[in-house]
Design brief:
The longest helix has 33 residues, at 1369-1401. The protein contains 39 helices and 59 strands.
């Protein structure tokens, strides 16, 4: 039916609201409609709509199988899943298995009959299209955000949830969870499977890989990568075979491009992903500002992404919600994307360029306007707060549209192009703003300083009128801009000076025509094209024609009876008799055309009145909203109406030419094409603009509605009589507040709009407009609610008796009023009132009875005020009135009207009785409490106490406490507030009413503090403790937070309160936390507040210096925060301890002078707990323990105790050794002893042999320092060889554990030819600075000196001294014996284990089976589960327990024969030292021949284990 169409905008915040089938048809949901677009690489065409959902479409998915590719499924907020035939545009079937809002949908790519959907409660429904069967399951109790069926295995489904969880589900096993994929921590917006099933070809950086898995029941049969996009700004790639993430892609922060973004509109991130079918190693995702990112998953490097759209303006300007792709026959793949910027874009994935853009509309189309200068430029005023200019004549791009949003904060309701200035477009908005855009620039619009109070309905350019027309040539504008708005005022704006105040033309009309009465509010205006006259429509249906420039009234047209919605003059290039035709449309559905040639050509002296139309065009069935004359024909008119149709008329014949019915809602605007005589453009509240041909329409007249026009007129006239709408704004929009909905809406018609499609971030929520419209059009009330139940006194009771009236009164309690009108208050005397509404005969009898009672005494059967004569109590004496009150009270009690009982007793003076009834029935109130003192003090107190209980039941505790205060019960009032957890109010009351030293106040503070502490409100709890006089508890509470700020505050608080010990401990905790975060200045600042923490300041100083020196060694982190300038000193011959002593003396004033002070500091630090380290000890904790030992060593040195100093240094080195950090130990040794063994002997020079403490520690230090020096020298040579490419492996061992088992060496393995020796460079490997100039030679064993002989001799001497220390025969014997004993113990354990297993397999006694002796078993012994078990020999048949015990005894005897210093001191492994020396001898000639021989002898003698023999084989063969 239409040629071109701008559709409604795709719905926002849906995981799959657009999809593409294999035929190139794109479907997307917009509001409650699905639009179908035929997609090619060069253009697109909207080919149809699928209408049937009642609410917003939330998902759409095509079947991707050849025979069913034209079938699609859709979901909606109405709870249905519908199936459609997109070829025929018809509905097929639906299912309603969901009970909650559906949030996700997918048609399986593998099984053509499986359609899966999920809802917000976590229910997943599988629907089989061929059979109609459904199955549902509940994998997780979470809100489903997205789901996707696997393209490789038909039964595997991926489901993404709002909280970031992703589960893989097997639909054949009742929704059994196969994997739980954990890693995201926010909404899963999209899931996309890789097109290939294999999990290869991706490159992951180490920081991309996460171990976020799994919670699995079993693995999938087939693998396949799954991509997920989340609100947490990451895209993750998951291995579905392994159930874990293999790659994490963080969105790049890009500078937003383009100018189509309103910075005042907030939007949240939506991260959608799509895996192209033709590119398995590439992934597409959205980004922060509408950019589309292509990720190269197989690319190696830091930046793996590239952007789609190279040139300016190609990208979306707002976030992207959905992506889908289609493969073209030529092999190219097109990507379709929908965005918040209301554009659908098509991308060529081979070039990454945008092929075309389809603009969409996010609101009602209120106005259309063609430019009279730039032919074909169509302006669109839309309810999404944007103006669009569409170049309708473009050949390359048929949807070439430019969008303007700056300066617009409301719906655009009026447009008008300047008649002569190109590109000048005036606009009016819903909030009364008038402005002018330059359509050929990106500048903000000019805004008029004069605002309308209501919606701008009409804009028109015309000649200026006074006072703006005053002035000479060039001083006034040729054209003025006129605006008509909802308050009924027409303003004239000067386009050259919009900042100036606009003028109201009503002033000129009054002055020119001498009008004294009030003018009718104006609703529309239209200038005749020649500018001679202007027609103005009014709210009362009249049309007035004024002559310019004085605005003299020429005539008044009294034809319409409802507000004028539109006026249009015939064009001037027609026959002369047609140039003065004026067409008008109002809310009565009839278009009138008047011929004004007589009054224009021959203006009358007095205004003429026209009551007959030149032509009448009747056919529409609802209000007329717009009309337009054809510029190509004479007397041809097109009109649009709320009946959802556009009608073309032959005005002279009063006949319809054609009727267009392509819109799904009410039509609001129309324009005839300025270049094509057969083309008309229309816009409506279905969010679309449509182009259609007059000659191609099937119908000639509008459709007839269920009600004729006469019935509509009659019903609306009745409604108007009942309630007339006051004011122009209400009358113009009659039932609907929408700016252009100027009359009644169709009640329940097809044009009624549905709710808006997006969340609160959307620029316009048209749903409010639709809701308001629909609600206002419902004027009828259901029968049950339309009849107000009359009051009792207006309802004659016929022959009812007094008993029947009482029964009716009882029923009234259970029957709430069904009326919507305000009811009269309940009668206090209903029984007597009802008796006065009986038939006339009964009332006349009552008069005679009353007269008899007053003048002759009451008759025997009559008691006035009681029973059948209750109504007479009001007219007899007081006793009769009392009887009547008693009867009425009984009736009220039975009906439950206790308030009436109370008031009756108050009226009769029974205050105590009234209070008693109110107390018993819980009807006490402030009024009754105010009258209670009239009954006495005791009654008042009891009433207050009862009212307090009632208020407590009503949870009005503050009011109850206030009433207790009125009877001086302060403590009960405080207790009431406290018992109901109103602690703050209770304390306020107590402080206001009690003495400051009252114990109740302290109890309240303490009790509330306990509750606050339990609830985690620690700051307020601390204030309570302070107020209660417990600063200790306040400090402890603040410290519970255990962060740096809280600990610092708690320490300061304790110090202020005099809790010195607590303040010291808290300050120390705070300093430790700061030191743990490497904030050394902060830690020292906290410790400096307490003089007693000087020892810890020294400890932290040592730790800071040690950390700075060890930075980068064995994982020691480099400082990221500022540190003290003395943290990295230049160390001299005294090493690190010398630097520490210097800093202590300069910064802390600690030196050798004050022995007592030093001893106190030493005593404090010795009390610090320092447990033995383990291999798994954290590095920071190890450094803390190491620095503590070094601090104690430095203090001992200052005290002159060299032995304790050496002992402390050895203790620190030993702890690092036991933790297994080889490089850390080596670097520590080099820091402490920069001259090696000479530095150690410098510390121990004053020690006598055997003197303890210190002597054995010094020997151990000498040996280990020598060991690490030799190892570093050997490693430096190996590093040099690897640098020139002569080493086999990229990395060497960190210790000799690998050399012992022969798994790796820095040199060549056995049997390989040794390479040429290289010069040893000056390197620092494993923390050891090596001397340069050792040797370099092409012949093994021959040293060629590359440095001066003095340096060579020094290096040889140091090497010789190191060999002498390490190649120790006693230590070798001691270590060999210990290894042998350990091996024997392993063999013993193996024998015991073997024996126990044999005992377990013996048959029970009495079965007649003889068990073989355990000694003759041939079962292989079980190897112990330890690393050393590989070196222990298997238990042979000859090994017996006595022989093994004898061997152990022999080794113990050998150990006893060794010197005590050998057994007590620690020494490096002699065998490892031998290996190092022998390897070193192959690289340089520093190792003498004697030491080489001694090393080989020790290896041959004591290297008895298999791994040592294997490592030493090349040296011993």
């Amino acid at each position: 039916m239409h040629e071109r169409l701008l559709p409604a905008s795709p719905n926002w915040y849906c995981s799959r609201c657009s999809d593409t089938n294999d035929k190139g048809i794109l479907g997307f949901g917009a509001k409650n409609t699905i639009y179908l677009v035929d997609v090619t690489a060069s253009s697109c065409v909207v080919v149809g709509e699928l209408v049937g959902h009642r609410e917003r479409v939330s998902g759409i998915s095509f079947c991707h199988h050849g025979d069913l590719s034209h079938i699609c499924a859709s979901t909606s907020d109405d709870g249905t899943v519908k199936f459609w035939d997109t070829d025929e545009k018809v509905f097929i079937k639906e299912h309603k298995s969901h009970q909650n809002t559906i949030t996700a949908l997918h048609w399986s790519p593998v099984d053509k009959n499986l359609v899966v959907s999920g809802d917000e409660k976590g229910i997943v429904v599988c629907y089989w299209y061929n059979t109609g069967d459904t199955s549902s399951f509940f994998p997780e109790p979470r809100n489903i955000f997205s789901l996707s069926c696997s393209p490789h295995t038909w039964n595997i489904l991926a489901v993404g949830y709002k909280d970031g969880m992703i589960v893989l589900v097997d639909v054949t096993k009742k929704g059994e969870v196969v994997h739980r994929l954990r890693g995201h921590d926010d909404e899963i917006h999209a899931l996309s499977w890789a097109p290939t099933p294999n999990e290869e070809g991706l490159h992951s950086r180490p920081d991309d890989i996460t171990e976020s898995t799994n919670g699995v029941s079993e693995g999938t049969e087939k693998g396949g990568y799954l991509a997920s996009g989340s609100k947490d700004q990451t895209v993750r790639i998951w291995s579905t075979a392994k159930g874990k993430a293999v790659m994490t892609l963080k969105l790049p922060f890009l500078k937003r491009r383009g100018s189509g973004v309103d910075p005042g509109v907030k939007e949240r991130l939506w991260l959608t992903v799509h895996w192209p079918r033709s590119k398995p190693t590439q992934l597409l995702s959205s980004c922060f500002g509408g950019e589309l990112v292509l990720w190269e998953l197989a690319r190696v490097g830091k930046q793996r992404w590239s952007l789609l759209g190279g040139s300016e303006g190609q990208n979306h300007s707002r976030i992207v919600f959905n992506m889908s792709s289609v493969l073209l026959p030529d092999g190219r793949e097109l990507l379709l994307s929908t965005s918040m910027d209301r554009e659908v874009k098509c991308w060529d994935l081979s070039s990454l360029d945008c092929c075309w853009t389809l603009p969409t509309l996010g609101g009602f189309v209120y106005c259309l306007a063609f430019s009279p200068v730039a032919t074909g430029s169509l302006g669109l005023g839309v309810g999404d707060s944007m103006v669009r200019v569409w170049g309708t004549l473009g050949l390359q791009n048929r949807y070439d549209t430019k969008t303007f949003w700056q300066g617009i904060k409301s719906k655009v309701t009026a447009l008008s192009w300047h008649p002569a200035r190109e590109g000048s477009l005036a606009f009016g908005t819903d909030d009364g703003k008038v402005g002018i855009y330059d359509a050929f620039s990106n500048k903000p619009p000019q805004i008029s300083s004069s605002y309308h109070r209501k919606t701008v309905y009409t804009l028109a350019w015309g000649p200026p009128v006074p006072p703006m027309s005053f002035g000479g040539p060039g001083e006034c504008a040729v054209h003025s801009l006129y605006s008509c708005a909802g308050e009924g005022v027409i303003l004239q704006h000067d386009p050259r000076r919009l900042a100036a105040e606009a003028s109201d033309i009503d002033t000129l009309i009054r002055d020119t025509n001498n009008i004294k009465h009030k003018l009718s509010p104006h609703t529309d205006l239209s200038w005749k094209p020649d500018g001679r006259v202007v027609a103005i429509g009014n709210e009362d249906g009249s049309i007035e024609v004024y002559q310019a420039p004085s605005l003299k009234l020429l005539c008044s047209i009294q034809q319409h009876h409802k507000i004028i919605n539109v006026l249009r003059w015939h064009h001037q290039h027609a026959a002369p008799e047609l140039q003065h035709l004026l067409a008008s449309g109002s809310s009565n559905a009839v278009v009138y055309v008047h011929d004004l040639s007589a009054v224009i050509e021959n203006p009358p002296d007095s205004p003429a009145v026209m009551t007959e139309a030149y032509r009448s065009l009747a056919g529409h069935t609802a209000k007329i909203t717009s009309l337009a004359w054809s510029p190509h024909h004479d007397a041809r008119l097109v009109t649009v109406s709320y009946d959802s149709t556009a009608q073309v008329w032959d005005v002279l014949k009063e006949e319809g030419v054609c009727n267009y019915r392509g819109h799904r809602g009410r039509l609001l605007c129309v324009q005839w094409s300025p270049v094509e005589p057969d083309v008309v453009w229309t816009g409506g509240d279905d969010f679309t603009v449509q182009e259609w041909n007059v000659s191609k329409q099937e119908h000639a007249r509008p459709p007839k509605g269920k009600k004729t026009l006469e019935l509509r007129e009659k019903s609306k006239a009745k409604a108007k009589k009942k309630k007339k709408a006051p004011g122009r704004g209400v009358a113009r929009a009659e039932e609907a507040p929408s700016p252009s909905l100027r009359g009644e809406g169709d009640k329940g018609g097809a044009g009624a709009p549905v709710a808006g499609e997006g969340p609160s971030e959307e620029d316009e929520e048209e749903g409010s407009e639709a809701t308001s419209t629909s609600s206002s059009t419902v004027t009828a009330r259901p029968p049950s609610l339309s009849v107000e139940r009359p009051a009792v006194e207006k309802q004659p009771c016929g022959g009812k008796t007094f008993a029947s009236i009482k029964r009716d009164l009882k029923k009234e309690k259970a029957e709430p009023s069904s009326s919507l009108k305000k009811r009269k208050p309940r009668s206090m005397l209903p029984l007597s009132t009802s008796m006065d509404h009986r038939p006339r005969e009964d009332l006349q009898q009552d008069i005679l009875t009353l007269a008899t009672a007053r003048h002759q005494g009451p008759p025997a059967h009559c008691v006035p005020g009681q029973g059948e004569h209750i109504q007479l109590g009001l007219f007899a004496d007081r006793q009769a009135l009392s009887r009547m009150f008693q009867e009425e009270e009984e009736g009220h009690l039975e009906a439950g009207h206790y308030d009436c009982v109370v008031y009756l007793r108050l009226w009769s003076g029974d205050i105590t009785g009234a209070l008693q009834v109110a107390t018993e029935k819980g009807e006490l109130n402030d009024h009754l409490l105010s009258v209670a003192p009239m009954a006495g003090y005791q009654v008042w107190c009891r009433t207050v106490e009862a009212y307090v209980k009632q208020l407590c039941q009503q949870e009005s505790y503050q009011k109850a406490a206030s009433h207790l205060l009125s009877i001086h019960k302060v403590y009960p009032a405080i207790e009431l507030l406290r018992d109901h957890q109103l602690y703050r109010e209770a304390i306020a009351l107590a402080k206001a009413r009690l003495q400051e030293d009252d114990p109740v106040l302290k109890t309240l503070y303490t009790f509330w503090a306990g509750q606050l502490e339990k609830d985690g409100h620690l700051a307020t709890a601390a204030k309570c403790y302070l107020a209660a006089g417990s600063p200790f508890d306040a400090a402890k509470v603040i410290a519970k937070k255990n962060d740096v700020g809280s600990l610092k505050t708690a320490a300061a608080l304790a110090g202020v309160a005099g809790e010195a010990e607590l303040s010291r401990s808290l300050a120390l905790r705070c300093a430790k936390d700061l030191a743990h975060a490497h904030d050394w200045p902060g830690a020292q600042q906290v410790l400096a507040t307490h003089h007693s923490l000087l020892a810890h300041r020294l400890h932290f100083c040592t730790t800071e210096m040690l950390s700075a020196c060890l930075s980068g060694v064995d994982g020691v982190p480099q400082a990221s925060l500022p540190s003290h300038p003395w943290a990295s000193p230049v160390l001299g011959e005294a090493g690190l301890l010398g630097g520490v002593r210097e800093v202590w003396g300069r910064e802390f004033g600690v030196g050798e002078g004050d022995q007592e002070k030093l001893q106190g500091l030493q005593q404090v630090l010795r009390a610090v707990e320092s447990p033995l380290p383990s291999p798994n000890i954290p590095l920071k904790q190890l450094l803390n323990h190491l620095s503590l030992d070094l601090t104690l060593a430095a203090l001992s040195w200052l005290l002159g105790d060299q032995g304790a100093a050496v002992e402390g240094m050895w203790r620190g080195v030993a702890k690092a050794r036991e933790a297994g950090l080889f490089s850390l130990v080596a670097e520590t040794c080099s820091l402490l002893f920069p001259r090696g063994v000479g530095s150690v002997r410098g510390f121990s020079s004053s020690l006598e042999p055997g003197q303890e403490p210190g002597w054995l520690s010094s020997k151990s230090l000498e040996a280990f320092v020598s060991y690490y020096w030799l190892y570093g020298l050997w490693w430096a040579l190996s590093a040099k060889r690897r640098a020139v490419g002569e080493s086999q492996g990229p990395d060497g061992p960190r210790s000799l554990a690998e050399i012992r088992n022969g798994s790796a060496t820095p040199e060549m393995q056995n049997g390989e030819k040794e390479e040429e020796k290289e010069e040893v460079p000056v390197v620092k490997q494993n923390g050891l600075a090596e001397p340069a100039g050792v040797c370099a030679s092409a012949t093994p064993g021959v040293c060629v000196t590359t440095r001066p002989p003095q340096q060579q001799e020094g290096a040889e001497g140091r090497c010789r001294a190191a060999c002498d220390l390490l190649l120790s025969e006693p230590h070798a014997m001691h270590q060999a014996s210990q290894r042998a004993i350990a091996e024997i113990q392993l063999r013993l354990a193996s024998m015991v284990h073997q024996h126990s297993r044999a005992q377990e397999t013996e048959p029970p006694a009495g079965e007649g089976q003889a068990s073989p002796p355990s000694s003759t078993t041939t079962q292989e012994p079980t190897q112990p589960d330890s690393q050393e078990s590989t070196a222990a020999p298997q238990c042979a048949g000859g090994d017996t327990l006595p022989s093994l015990v004898a061997m152990v005894s022999q080794h113990h005897k050998e150990l006893e024969g060794l010197p005590d210093d050998v057994k007590k001191s620690e020494h490096p492994d002699v065998m490892e030292s031998c290996l190092v020396i022998l390897y070193l001898s192959q690289s340089c000639s520093l190792v003498g021949a004697a030491n080489q021989t001694l090393a080989r002898d020790l290896l041959a003698k004591h290297g008895t284990t298999s791994d040592l023999r294997k490592a030493a084989q090349r040296f011993l063969s």
